């Protein structure tokens, strides 16, 4: 605790009060049970509920250029935190179960870091503290609501085109300008610079060591998307210094293969780092949505990330260097050259390690007047994800159209494809301590609370309920946050409860009649 007080003082934050800042080290743990009388499990035979529906329902929360949060730069800390709670309440109300929060947009940090400067998208000034630790608050608030939080980083971008603040002295463009290349209207860390790769890994080690994130996530920005000159000719990425050094040291790969190898090695090492530091956390990658040209379905055509971004996604899938792939399938079903379902099935077929495939949906585009898009398109794409072979989930880009219910989309989803809650899929190739049996406590004020006494703390509880005493035939599923409070239980209701651990594996079920 003393170390954390010193850290706050060094970074110029407000002093910690007792019990503050728990999100730095903990998160998602069940609240301590209050004193209460155990409700004995029923010994009567019960026609049990079905298997719980499993579907990763994620949403990207983009902080770059203030796309989703905070709504603008320079808001007071209290207003930024109020927006956090509002966005997470929207996610819970919509029955989502995960958020993917951008915490490193451009070699910066939306969390307390001694390695990189505070992001300008918080205060308007890169390097200026917002007065609190945003990621700690996001984690505490998300986990308290039973939501997963995956930390999304950009490994290579050093300055985004919308950046307005002068770079802080600790930013790589000033501390290590030899790593950084100007390309188009942005700055990029050269993937061919070994010291820059070590820095990115050090950033991730620090992040994973201090924050209880449920996943580490990278998107489609590897080598940058090509830019053109005034004559509309493609400009090559200016990595001559690192390329020349590679050749002088005896390198034999072609330049394109060397670039792919640079990215491959970082992906492999990031995966190994997550396995070392957070064995239950998932590694997610969200690449451009088209596979390598020679591996595409008939009729699919367009940009090649393999040849232009030097991203060999198919290799990463074959080697198992990720736990879920969220290919950005940002096209409507009717757009034949990039049709949604053939692309989804293609990625499912390029998955020898049977990792999760959770496609990215262009939800933001569906609420505009763009050709071929309607709000109904998103629900239709979700239904495709549920038809065999089932994808197991999806991720929306991005949060703001859902938070604002643009064109009624949020309401449509909640009343339609999200009418029932769902648990995230288990990740059986990862290891985490199991949860023990669930107990039900009747508290002094008459409320009911689910608790686990043995095993790992519950990340969430799955609670099936049925009012058989008044003839209700169907089971209803509630996903209860780790505090365990049972909402609005009625006398005579049958409850079947179990706890989920960090990999969303179910513990033993218990049945109660209250």
Query: What is the number of helical segments per DSSP (H or I, 4+ residues)?
Result: 15
Unreliable stretches:
1-31
Overall residue-averaged pLDDT value: 93
User: Helix- and strand-based class?
Assistant: alpha/beta
User: Separation of termini?
Assistant: 42 Å
* DSSP, total strands: 21
As a whole number of angstroms, the C-alpha radius of gyration is 24 Å
Question: What report would you give on this structure?
Answer:
The two termini are 42 Å apart. This protein has 514 residues and is of the alpha/beta class. Strands 13-12-11-8-4-3-2-15-14 form a nine-stranded parallel sheet. Strands 19-18-20-21 form a four-stranded antiparallel sheet, with no helix packed on it. The model is unreliable at 1-31 (pLDDT under 50). The protein has 15 helices and 21 strands. It has helices at residues 2-11, 77-93, 120-123, 134-144, 172-175, 194-210, 240-248, 255-277, 305-308, 313-319, 340-349, 363-366, 375-386, 399-403, 409-415; strands at residues 36-39, 56-61, 98-104, 148-153, 157-159, 180-183, 186-189, 215-218, 227-228, 234-235, 282-285, 324-325, 356-357, 360-361, 393-396, 438-443, 448-452, 460-466, 476-480, 494-500, 510-513. Helices cover 28% and strands 18% of the residues. Pfam families: GHL10. Residues 32-52 are annotated as: Disordered. Keywords: Lipoprotein, Signal.
Fold blueprint:
Elements: H1 2-11, E1 36-39, E2 56-61, H2 77-93, E3 98-104, H3 120-123, H4 134-144, E4 148-153, E5 157-159, H5 172-175, E6 180-183, E7 186-189, H6 194-210, E8 215-218, E9 227-228, E10 234-235, H7 240-248, H8 255-277, E11 282-285, H9 305-308, H10 313-319, E12 324-325, H11 340-349, E13 356-357, E14 360-361, H12 363-366, H13 375-386, E15 393-396, H14 399-403, H15 409-415, E16 438-443, E17 448-452, E18 460-466, E19 476-480, E20 494-500, E21 510-513
Parallel strand pairs: 2-3, 2-15, 3-4, 4-8, 8-11, 11-12, 12-13, 14-15
Antiparallel strand pairs: 1-16, 5-7, 6-7, 9-10, 16-17, 18-19, 18-20, 20-21
Biased composition (Pro residues): 35-52
Region (Disordered): 32-52
Pfam families: GHL10
């Amino acid at each position: 605790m003393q170390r954390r007080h010193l850290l706050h003082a060094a970074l110029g934050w407000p002093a910690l009060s007792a019990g503050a800042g728990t999100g730095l080290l903990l998160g998602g743990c069940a609240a301590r049970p209050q004193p209460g009388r155990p409700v004995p499990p029923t010994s009567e035979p019960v026609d049990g509920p079905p298997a719980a529906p499993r579907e990763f329902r994620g949403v990207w929360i983009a902080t770059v250029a203030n796309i989703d949060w905070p709504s603008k730069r320079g808001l007071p800390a209290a207003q930024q935190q109020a927006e956090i709670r509002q966005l997470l309440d929207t996610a819970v109300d919509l029955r989502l179960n995960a958020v993917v929060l951008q915490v490193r947009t451009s070699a910066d940090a939306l969390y307390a870091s001694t390695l990189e400067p505070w992001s300008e998208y918080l205060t308007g000034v890169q390097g200026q503290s917002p007065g609190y630790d945003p990621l700690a608050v996001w984690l505490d608030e998300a986990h308290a609501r039973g939501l997963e939080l995956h930390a999304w980083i950009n490994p290579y971008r050093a300055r985004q085109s919308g950046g307005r603040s002068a770079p802080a002295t600790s930013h790589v463009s000033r501390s290590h300008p030899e790593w950084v290349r100007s390309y188009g209207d942005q700055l990029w860390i050269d993937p061919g610079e070994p010291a820059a790769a070590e820095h990115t890994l050090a950033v991730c080690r620090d992040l994973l060591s201090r924050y209880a994130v449920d996943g580490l996530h990278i998107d489609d920005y590897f080598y940058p998307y090509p830019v053109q000159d005034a004559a509309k000719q493609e400009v090559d990425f200016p990595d001559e210094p690192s390329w020349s050094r590679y050749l002088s040291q005896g390198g034999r790969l072609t330049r394109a293969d060397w670039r792919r190898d640079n990215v491959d090695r970082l992906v492999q090492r990031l995966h190994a780092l997550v396995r070392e530091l957070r064995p239950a956390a998932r590694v997610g990658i969200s690449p451009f949505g088209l596979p390598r040209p020679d591996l595409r379905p008939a009729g699919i055509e367009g940009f090649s990330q393999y040849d232009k971004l030097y991203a060999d996604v198919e290799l990463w899938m074959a080697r198992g260097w990720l736990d879920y792939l969220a290919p950005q399938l940002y096209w409507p079903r009717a757009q034949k050259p990039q049709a949604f379902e053939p692309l989804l099935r293609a990625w499912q077929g390029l998955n020898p390690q049977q990792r999760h495939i959770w496609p990215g949906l262009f939800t933001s585009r569906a609420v505009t007047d763009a050709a071929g898009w309607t709000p109904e398109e998103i629900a239709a794409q979700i239904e495709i994800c549920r038809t065999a072979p089932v994808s197991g989930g999806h991720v929306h880009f991005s949060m703001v159209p859902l938070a604002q219910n643009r064109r009624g989309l949020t309401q449509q989803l909640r009343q339609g494809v999200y009418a029932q809650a769902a648990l995230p899929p288990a990740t059986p190739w990862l290891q985490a301590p199991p949860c023990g049996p669930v107990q039900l406590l009747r508290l002094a004020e008459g409320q009911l609370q689910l608790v686990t006494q043995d095993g790992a703390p519950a990340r969430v509880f799955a609670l099936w309920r049925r009012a058989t005493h008044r003839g209700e035939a169907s089971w209803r599923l509630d996903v209860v946050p780790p505090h365990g409070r049972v909402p609005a239980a009625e006398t005579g209701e049958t409850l079947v409860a179990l706890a989920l651990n960090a990999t969303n594996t179910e513990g033993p079920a218990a049945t109660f009649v209250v």
